[in-house]
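User: Second chain of the day. Same drill as before.
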Amino acid sequence: MIHPKHISIHDFIYHLPDESIAKFPLENRDDAALLVYKDGEIRKEVFKSLNEQLPSNALLVFNDSKVIHARILFRISETIQIECFCLEPADGITATDSFSQHGPVRWICMVGMARKWKSDNIAKPFSGSEGDGLFTATKISSEGRDYLIEFDWDNKNYSFSEVLMLVGDLPIPPYLNRAALPEDEQRYNTVYAGAEGSVAAPTAGLHFTKPILEKLKGSGKTLAYVTLHVGAGTFLPVKSDTMEGHEMHAERIEVSLETISLLANALENRSMVTVGTTSTRTIESLYWLGCRWMKEGRGEDSFFVNQWEPYEYNGDELPSAKKVFAFLEMWMKEKNLESITGYTRLIIAPGYTFQVVDALITNFHQPGSTLLLLVAALVGEDWKKIYEFASQNNFRFLSYGDSSLLYK
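Assistant: Same format as last time:
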């Protein structure tokens, strides 16, 4: 098996005509088509039949991150706009804490038209139910393509979360080639979204409705939630000849003790189904984190899983997922932690061995993307057969497109 470092992204290109890209959501979330891949066979179903397509003992893991109004446009002349695209809070502050602030906050941002930003700060007025105000952005420093920006506002009746809703725009994917519409406010978030912090939706969850979630629970399935705040790096193309030259973006993870305990006590008797590539990377990252801590005999208050960490074990005998999550559960209880937080840069590509996940619910991804590599790691060369079937059977692609249930 080739090492993922030596994979060429050019081997994961397929033809995606513009008319196959879903520009708008369907009227009903669960009317989406569902491609089911199992034991090498492919069939077309409808998403509202998902419960019948899953094992009776399925444990589903969802990413509950919520998309924020991350795009803030400041007009400095009739023809020039400066865009601050919020990526993540600076100085180690969590998104939850930053959004609750009623004073200055600092964020790492991408800045469009940065060379036109000459003054110390830029500002825009806003108006809402708590009164009017002025929102300002001050450029503190820059490193590469990222800028440290301090945001402040004069009407302290508003939290940062509230003022961002007034001054910012929802960052729908650039390949939609359109402005965000009012309907996107609800439809570009999952019905179970709660933890603010993503700049792109965990789109595999967009098809779920509350009745579907209730049906899953009513039929004996177990539902668990993790948080991975999706970063703008999810849209970054792979430009290197091989994956060794591609630096995966770091994304912030937060997982509760409740979910860790559920995994520790259910993995032996449940089929693990992750909803989306973000949930998959979260769960698999936690496994490798636990492996490292078990080996070192310690844990840390926060963590970082690097891009190539799983591939460094070189055939070592690995502990079971149940043992790893039991270790994490014990460590969190000893530390009196209600949640565990950190970052992951994990890349899952062909050559990767899944340690926890049995099946994946996901949309159809862009050609030459790291998300497609994850799919190929799960289903092997059959990814080509799956995507050809989807194309020939009029499946809708990308964020607002149709869904698939892929078994390992």
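The mean pLDDT is 94.

User: Great, on to the next one.
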